[in-house]
Amino acid sequence: MMRNRLLGLLLIGYSVFATIFQEVKGQNLKEFQGLPFITNHEALTYHAGIQNFDIIQDDLGRIFVANNLGLLEFDGKSWARYGLNNTKVRSAFLGSDKKIYVGSQADFGFLSHDGQGNLAYTSLADSLPKGLRDFDETWRVFGMDKFIYFCTFTRIYVYDGKVLRALDPGRRMDISFQVDNQLYTQIPGEGLFQVNSDRFEPIRNGDFFKDKRVSNILSYDRDRWLITTFSHGIFLYDGEVRPFQIESGEWKNEFLINYSTRLRNGSIALATQNAGLFVLDKEGNLLDHLDKDSGLQDLTINFIFEDSQSGLWLAMNNGLARVELSSPFSVIDDRMGLTGAGYAALKLDDVIYLGTNNGLFLWKNGKISFVKGTEGQVYSIQEVRGKVVLNHHNGTFLIENDGAVQISSVQGAWILKQHPKQSDYYIQGTYTGLSLLKWQNGSLSFVKKIKGFGESSRVMEFEDTTLWVAHGYKGVFKLKLSDDLSEVVETKLYNSAQGFPNNDLINVFKVNSRLLFTANGGFYGYASEEDRFSPLSEFNDLFGYGTVVADLEPDELGNIYFIEQSRLGVIKPQQNHQLSLNYSSFNKVKRLWNDDLANVIVLDNQNILIGGKQGFIHYHPSLDLPRADGPKVFFRQIRNQGKESQVIFSGHGLSNQPNATLEETTFSYSQNSFFFEFGSAHFESGEEIHYQYLLENYEEEWSPWTSEIKKEYTNLREGDYVFKVRSKTVFDEVSPPVEFRFTVKPPIYRSVFAYAVYAFSLFAFLFVGFKWLDRRHKKQTLKLEQEKDLELRQKDDVIETITLQSEQEIMRLKNDQLQSQIEFKNQELTSSAMNLIQKNKLLNTIKGSLKNLMEENKSNELNAQLSRLVRSIDKDLEGVEDWSAFAESFDQVHGRFITRLKEKFPELTPQEIKFSAYIRMNLNTKEIANLLGISVRGVEIGRYRVRKKLGLARQDSLSDFLLRF
């Protein structure tokens, strides 16, 4: 809701725009206009002669000047000079074929570019026969249809691109002219003539100028010409000749007119010999007069040229100048009588009041004068009921009758604000608080200092009866005054604690009855319900958050002029109830504004003043028109570097069309470094033009904007590249890019042939390598298999050894077990044998006893019984059953000894086998005897028999044999 109300208020002024515009259009704006921006170029700057005669411009915006030491070229940054056979160049013309045709002293010809962009001069006059070579100066060069006309004082030479012919009037001529695609010339003593084919025909009443030397002829309207003469004034011609009057006290008839031209806006510019530049409207009213006091370095102007940006180039007797007459900005400074930095201004009726740090100045009737008694710092100038009030460092003054009357001596008077309820009272902000002034008896007078507040009060605004006072580094104070306005009864300070981003740079402005607060972080509004400040999105979205506004000033049309830290401009309301921010035009002057108490003052809708470091900058909105001629960028030089340094392109011959491209070029790898120099002939931007470049296939993004006009790339790899460059003017206009395409060939070791060799070598290497690897693999595989086999064999051996050892161990364990069993069996056998021996011994004893008893007893019955017992004992001693069991056990223990012995020695008797078995058991003779039931002698005999049957020699041991068997 609040935003819509604001935008509605901003659009109110449009309803009266047409009326206001018509009023402004009817005024002579000269009296409210400062001096145009003038750029002077001295001979020391362009390094040539002081005299200049003609100026042209090519399609890239570069300026060419006919100088008395050659043809000069200026591209906005650098100057170049072409000597042209060391002659004085008087005239120049840019042909449709892009050749620069020049006329000089005793010569004429053209400059054309070669394949590398170098300009080279070709003399056409040198091709003339000797009889036609006798001319002095070529003062004019014109182009019509397909013909070029070189105009000398002797003849006019016509060139069709191939053939050169001469038009000879038979008498001396003066300067020639081109009007509406027709050529005219002046013959001294006869008048003006029209040149038709080979004829020179006098024009009607042309003899009027037989004794008046004509400086130029212009189209004035459809049926009339404007003819200027060097020393006889200006005339209108329509077949009849009438004087043309200049309506200005600054013009004097003794001023000599060297040249005249019609500007694009319809004005007429006059170049004089001794009074500088005059600019007239069609009716002859003086619009501008520039001389040395205005900033020109010379009063003698030979030629005027209006460039594509509507700047006027002046070819002077001593140097060159460019004048920005069509700019919406002009300067009011010490050249007009105003000294100091600009701080305040006021327009009242037909007088403009200007305040600087040096005091107050009046601009009235086109003149600026100082008001005595106002020396020192002026802070503001205000109109109070038709009176002019000056707020000054030394106090407060009324300006009356071009003089100053002090009404308050309170130092540091900043500003006055009328009380909204008590309209006769005014609150004044000062260094030390507030003062009260009152309107009475037709004048303003000081009443008293207001108590209760002592802060500096430079910026303040009323909201109803509440007074808001902004302080530079504390915040903003909300003050409530007593009913009699004698004191401040309530004070509250608002700063970062109440919604501001910090305490610094807080200001308050009233725009269309609404208070806008600005801080070091954007725009803020006061919410009374919450008693806090909050950001205003409609302005912060427009500016971007973080902006710091120093001043806001609305006009009657709803525009709001602003100054912030980095830019100044205007907020414009749009028909869609939106706001637009326009500041690019103001970039032209932002380096000139006064950053101490920066200020913008709306004198009226068409006259805006900006406080400058030197005086004021005047802004005329109706002259701020869209610029039709956009910026163009071009290559000054392209150089290839490496083992050798060579210039590829020298700046001429490239079209000004968007995305213009030089012919693609290929370079060896040893020449892989490049140097680019570029420029843009945008003269309004001066030194503030910036560039951006990109090398495709090397850089991903455009570079940051820079004022550098050179870029170098070294040691580029092979590949296809496109170097692009574009420019940006002081008005943020970006030019279409120009391009240079080039290719860097690879080094020989990275060429296609080299890669083919590499590929073949690689193939051969891989083939041989694969073969070698295959053989090596097979060898390694075989070796690995052998190693595996060996390893397996070793493992098998180990396993076999382990197995054998295991088997041996098992066998040993088994043998040990068998041995134990054998020993056990042997022990059993031995024990059995011993038991048997004991038993047999006992039985033998018993037997012996029984036999003795039988011998002693004669009883047959008893003897029979005893005999049965003896037989039973004998049977038992034979031990056939016992032997069988013993033999079976003995064979188990002694490895089938008895069986093997029987098989090998079958002749052995059972008694001898028993005898052998007992010997193997290591029984002694006595024990054997007991077992066998024989005597010891019988054992010896038995041993003898066994030895014999076994075939033992005497020395052989029977026991050893039987043990080993």
From TrEMBL:
Domain Two component regulator three Y positions: 683-733
Domain of life from the UniProt record: Bacteria
Signal peptide: none
Transmembrane segments: 752-773
GO BP, sorted A to Z: regulation of DNA-templated transcription
Keywords linked to the UniProt accession: Membrane, Transmembrane, Transmembrane helix
InterPro entries: Ig-like_fold (IPR013783), Sig_transdc_resp-reg_C-effctor (IPR016032), WD40/YVTN_repeat-like_dom_sf (IPR015943), WH-like_DNA-bd_sf (IPR036388), Y_Y_Y (IPR011123)
GO molecular function terms attached to this record: DNA binding
A Pfam family reported for this protein in Swiss-Prot or TrEMBL: Y_Y_Y
Identification of the protein by name: Two component regulator three y domain-containing protein
Source species of the chain: Algoriphagus lacus
Highest classification ranks of the organism: Bacteria, Pseudomonadati, Bacteroidota, Cytophagia, Cytophagales
